[in-house]
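Cross-posted from the bioinformatics board.
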Amino acid sequence: TQLLEQSPQFLSIQEGENLTVYCNSSSVFSSLQWYRQEPGEGPVLLVTVVTGGEVKKLKRLTFQFGDARKDSSLHITAAQPGDTGLYLCAGAGETSGSRLTFGEGTQLTVNP
Amino acid sequence: KAGVTQTPRYLIKTRGQQVTLSCSPISGHRSVSWYQQTPGQGLQFLFEYFSETQRNKGNFPGRFSGRQFSNSRSEMNVSTLELGDSALYLCASSLAGGGRSPLHFGNGTRLTVT
């Protein structure tokens, strides 16, 4: 069974601060996705990383996939209140189809 | 382009009853997956359907079942409801399934079992 450990579970910061969320596993994933979920809504895909060592940037968000494809991180620069939400990492195995293994999520609150 | 639509949004049932949830995927998407989201367990995979066939199944009891129709719409059924089945049930569609194909989630059905 593939497991993804996400940390921290909760994060409350002030506007303008930087933060990093980690997603770790002992298993290798063929790809890893990051989602953001807001109350009352389903998760929305932010990015997919597929190559070990890959770095993707989405405005103030930087995503990295570990060289061994077992871990990933999400870094937010100069966080804003609009970044508030539940951030989820999800990994796909080579033969898992649409079966994604999700981390427990990081609840981020950015205070004005 | 319309997103993934789940109905109903909220549902209250009593123990022992059964329930059917519906999901309409994005037009053209042939893969539909179902997930259960609870505060303690996070998102847990239930099953995936592709072209009317169950392609993958998670570790849930047989009380949880699903199906997909020729128009790709999907339903999931839970029989003999238990208190622990209270959760947000999310449906996600994708073009072809697979970890590299983005999942598009609906807003879920909030099921409360009393």
